[in-house]
C-alpha cells in the first residue's frame, strides 16, 4: 500500500488511501475534535441506524451538533453499519438532528466517510430515495451553518445528503464522486477492472474538486492524529467565525449560490 | 373415424413448401409486455402506448407524451448545451445521437403548459436520451423551470424517467441533485404546488432528489421506482430480490407514492388536481 503521506499521488492511490484500514473511525475523529460528545440515537420513526452517528458536543466551548457516517472498527460493527452505508433511517436521524440544531441555533458539523447509501431490499422498501431527497430539500434552507468534511470516501447521493451545506472540506486522502470508480467503469465500459483508469477520468481527488469549486479546501493529513485534529479544529474555527457573521437569510442565500453555479 | 382428413388440410408439408412464409408476416406486429409478458397485436398499444393486459406504460419519448398530455405548450431552454466538464471520450457522439433520437437538447423537455384552464410549468424526462440520465443541462433546465414557476406563481408538474446521474459528467451530475432540490424548496416555500409523476424507470439520483419531493407523488402502473439497481442490491446483499420490489404498486404499499394513475386518465387527473389547488378553487376563493 502507498503511504498516506506520499506527496504526488495518482487518483487510484488516493482512492486506495481513502478506503484504507488506517483511516480514523468516526468516534476517533469526533472525540479528537470535540469535547463532551453525547450521542443521540434514533430517527423517531422506527429505527436507529449505526452507520450514522449523531449527537451534541462542544467545540471550543460552543455547542454544536455533530453528525458522522461510521464504517466501524470491529468486524461486528462493520456488519452492523454495512461498512458505513446508511439505511434510510440514518438519513432520517441526521435530518432530525439538523432540524433540532436549527431550533437551538447551533451549527452542524458533518463528517462523511461512506461509499454511498446502502443498496438493500429493506432500504428500498423504507424509501432510501425519499430519505436522501428529504435531506437535500430541508438542508437547503436551514438557518444555521452546516459544515461538511469528507474524511474518507464521499460516494454519490449518500454522501451529498450530508454535504449539501455551506462549506465542504476534504481530507488530503479522500475522494468524492458520483459513483465508485468500479461502478463507473462497469457502467461505461462494462468492465469494473478498469477502476484505476476510471478514477483518473472522474476527477474525484480533492485537488481536482477544489479547482472546480466543488469543495472549499483540503485538510492536510499526517501520521499523527493529533496534528490532524489540530488542523481540523483550526479550519472549523475559522469557518464558523466567518459564517457567524452572516444573517440567517444571507447564510441561506450564499448556500443557494454555492450550488446554483453548477 | 378421423377428426379431420389430413390430406385435405394445409399440413406442415405445404407450409414448409413456401419458404418465404415467415417473411410475409412483418416483424413488430406482435409485442410482448416486459412486465406481464403477455403478447398482443401492436395496434392494441394505442395512442397511450399501454399494455392492454396490465396497463403498464411503455417507455415513450418526451415529445410523444406531450402530444396527448397538454392543450398547449411553449418550450423553454431548448438550446442549452453541456460544456462536457470531464471532456469525456465519445460523449459528444453519444449526445448527438440522443439529440436526433429525441429531438431534445438534453434528457428533459421543459416549458409552460396549459391543460383545460390550468397553466403550469411542465417538465418531461425522456428515457430515450442516454437512459434519461441527469446531466448538468437536465439539472439546469429543471432548476430554471422551478425558478420561473416561482417568479410567476405557477405550479409545476414533472414526469420523471431516469437511470440516475449521468456518469459522463461526473461530480457535476451529482451537484444537480442539490441545485434542483433548493429550487424545489424555494418554490414550495411560496405555497405553490409541485406534482411528480414517476414513470418507468425512475431511479438513482432522480429518485433521491426531485422525484420524491413532490407535494403529491403519482406514478404510472407498474413503473419501476427505486434508488439502487436490482443487480447492485443482489451483489451487495447476496440475496435474491423479488421481481416486483421496485414496482410502483409495491412502493405505494410502503407509503412513498400517493396514487397510481393510468395514462388515459392522466390529463384529467392533473387538471383536476391543479384546479383543486388553484387560488380560485373552493368556497374560500
Please, could you describe this protein's structure?
The complex is a heterodimer of chains A (262) and B (285). Chain A is an alpha/beta fold and 262 residues long. Chain A has helices at 11-18, 26-33, 75-80, 88-103, 121-125, 128-139, 156-160, 181-189, 195-202, 206-211, 225-244, 248-260; strands spanning 35-39, 52-59, 62-69, 108-114, 146-155, 167-171, 175-177, 217-219. Chain A is built from twelve helices and eight strands. In chain A, strands 1, 2, 3, 4, 5, 6, 7 and 8 form an eight-stranded mixed β-sheet that branches. Chain B has ten helices and nine strands. Chain B has helices spanning 12-17, 21-24, 62-69, 91-102, 136-151, 170-189, 204-207, 230-237, 248-253, 263-276, and strands at residues 30-32, 39-41, 72-75, 108-115, 118-125, 156-162, 194-202, 216-219, 259-260. In chain B, the strands form two sheets. Chain B has a seven-stranded mixed β-sheet with strand order 3-4-5-6-7-8-9, sandwiched between helices. In chain B, strand 1 (30-32) and strand 2 form a beta hairpin. Chain B is globular, with a radius of gyration of 23 Å. Chain B starts with 11 loop residues before the first helix and ends in a 9-residue tail after the last helix. The mean pLDDT of chain B is 91. The chains are: A alpha/beta (262), B alpha/beta (285). Chains A and B meet through helix 5, helix 6, helix 7, helix 8 and helix 12 of A and helix 5, helix 6, helix 7 and helix 8 of B. Chain B: Component of the acetyl coenzyme A carboxylase (ACC) complex. Biotin carboxylase (BC) catalyzes the carboxylation of biotin on its carrier protein (BCCP) and then the CO(2) group is transferred by the transcarboxylase to acetyl-CoA to form malonyl-CoA. Chain B: One of its GO terms (biological process) is malonyl-CoA biosynthetic process.
Amino acid at each position: 500500500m502507498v503511504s498516506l503521506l506520499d506527496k504526488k499521488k495518482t487518483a487510484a492511490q488516493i482512492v486506495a488511501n481513502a478506503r484504507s484500514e488506517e483511516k480514523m473511525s468516526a468516534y476517533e475523529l469526533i472525540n479528537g475534535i470535540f469535547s463532551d460528545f453525547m450521542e443521540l440515537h434514533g430517527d423517531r420513526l422506527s429505527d436507529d441506524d449505526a452507520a450514522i452517528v449523531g449527537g451534541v458536543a462542544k467545540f471550543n466551548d460552543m455547542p454544536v451538533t455533530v453528525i458522522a457516517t461510521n464504517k466501524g472498527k470491529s468486524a461486528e460493527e462493520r456488519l452492523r453499519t454495512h461498512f458505513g452505508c446508511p439505511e434510510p433511517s440514518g438519513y432520517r436521524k441526521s435530518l432530525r438532528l439538523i432540524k433540532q440544531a436549527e431550533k437551538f441555533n447551533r451549527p452542524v458539523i458533518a463528517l462523511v466517510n461512506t461509499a454511498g447509501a446502502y443498496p438493500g431490499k429493506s432500504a428500498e422498501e423504507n424509501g432510501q430515495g425519499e430519505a436522501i431527497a428529504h435531506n437535500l430539500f430541508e438542508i437547503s434552507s436551514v438557518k444555521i451553518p452546516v459544515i461538511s468534511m469528507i474524511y474518507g470516501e464521499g460516494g454519490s447521493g449518500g454522501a451529498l445528503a450530508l454535504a449539501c451545506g455551506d462549506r465542504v472540506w476534504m481530507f488530503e486522502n479522500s475522494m468524492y464522486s458520483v459513483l465508485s470508480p468500479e461502478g463507473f467503469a462497469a457502467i461505461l465500459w462494462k468492465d469494473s477492472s478498469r477502476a484505476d483508469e476510471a478514477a483518473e477520468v472522474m476527477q474525484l481527488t480533492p485537488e481536482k474538486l477544489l479547482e472546480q469549486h466543488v469543495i472549499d479546501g483540503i485538510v492536510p493529513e499526517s501520521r499523527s492524529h493529533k496534528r490532524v485534529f489540530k488542523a481540523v479544529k483550526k479550519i472549523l474555527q475559522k469557518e464558523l467565525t466567518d459564517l457567524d457573521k452572516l444573517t440567517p437569510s444571507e447564510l441561506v442565500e450564499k448556500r443557494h449560490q454555492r450550488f446554483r453555479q453548477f | 373415424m378421423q377428426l379431420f382428413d389430413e390430406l385435405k388440410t394445409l399440413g406442415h408439408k405445404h407450409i414448409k413448401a413456401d419458404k418465404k412464409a415467415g417473411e410475409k408476416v412483418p416483424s413488430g406486429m406482435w409485442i410482448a409486455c416486459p412486465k406481464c409478458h403477455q403478447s398482443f397485436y401492436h395496434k392494441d398499444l394505442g395512442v397511450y402506448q399501454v399494455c392492454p393486459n396490465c396497463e403498464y406504460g411503455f417507455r415513450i419519448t418526451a415529445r410523444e407524451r406531450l402530444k396527448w398530455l397538454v392543450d398547449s405548450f411553449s418550450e423553454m431552454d431548448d438550446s442549452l448545451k453541456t460544456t462536457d466538464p470531464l471532456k469525456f471520450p465519445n460523449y459528444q457522439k453519444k449526445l448527438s445521437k440522443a439529440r436526433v433520437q429525441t429531438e431534445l437538447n438534453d434528457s428533459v423537455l421543459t416549458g409552460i403548459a396549459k391543460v383545460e384552464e390550468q397553466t403550469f410549468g411542465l417538465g418531461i424526462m425522456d428515457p430515450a436520451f442516454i437512459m434519461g440520465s441527469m446531466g448538468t443541462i437536465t439539472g439546469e433546465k429543471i432548476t430554471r423551470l422551478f425558478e420561473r414557476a416561482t417568479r410567476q406563481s405557477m405550479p409545476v408538474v414533472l414526469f420523471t424517467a431516469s437511470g440516475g446521474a449521468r456518469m459522463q459528467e461526473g461530480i457535476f451530475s451529482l451537484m444537480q441533485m442539490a441545485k434542483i432540490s433548493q429550487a424545489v424548496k424555494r418554490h414550495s416555500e411560496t405555497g405553490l404546488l409541485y406534482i411528480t409523476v414517476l414513470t418507468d424507470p425512475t431511479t438513482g439520483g432522480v429518485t433521491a432528489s426531485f422525484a420524491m419531493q413532490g407535494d403529491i407523488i403519482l406514478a404510472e402502473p407498474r413503473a419501476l421506482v427505486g434508488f439502487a439497481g436490482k443487480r447492485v442490491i443482489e451483489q451487495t446483499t447476496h440475496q435474491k430480490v423479488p421481481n416486483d420490489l421496485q414496482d410502483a404498486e409495491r412502493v405505494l404499499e410502503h407509503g412513498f407514492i400517493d396514487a397510481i394513475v393510468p395514462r388515459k386518465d392522466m390529463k384529467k387527473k392533473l387538471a383536476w388536481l391543479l384546479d383543486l389547488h388553484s387560488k380560485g378553487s373552493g368556497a374560500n376563493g
